[in-house]
Amino acid sequence: MNMELEALEGKIEQVVALVQQLRAENEVLKNQMATAEAERLILRQTMTAAREKLEGLMDKLPEDA
Q1: What is the DSSP string of 25-40?
Q2: CA-CA-CA-CA torsion for 47, 48, 52, 57, nearest 10 degrees?
Q3: What are the C-alpha distances in Å from 63 to residues 15, 56, 59?
Q4: pTM metric for this prediction
């Protein structure tokens, strides 16, 4: 019986360690996702500005007759 309890205790310790590891990894992934989302927003704004500039330049080009 004592060996069974020790084995169970070892398994519980492994589960606790795994949960802690997964929580840490989850926090890292949340931070990476927030960073990627911020970068995506900046890129989208840059693309919008570039498109608007190109459209403005195209409007200034003379039309072919």
Answers
A1: HHHHHHHHHHHHHHHH
A2: 0
A3: 71, 14, 9
A4: 0.69
Q: How confident is the model at residue 63 (pLDDT cuts 50, 70, 90)?
A: confident
Separation of CA 36 from chain center: 5
Of 55, 57, 56, 53, nearest to 45 by C-alpha is: 53
Q: What is the CA radius of gyration of the chain?
A: 28
Report angle CA 53, 55, 58 to the nearest 5 degrees: 110
| 18-35 pLDDT, tens digit each | 999 999 999 999 999 999
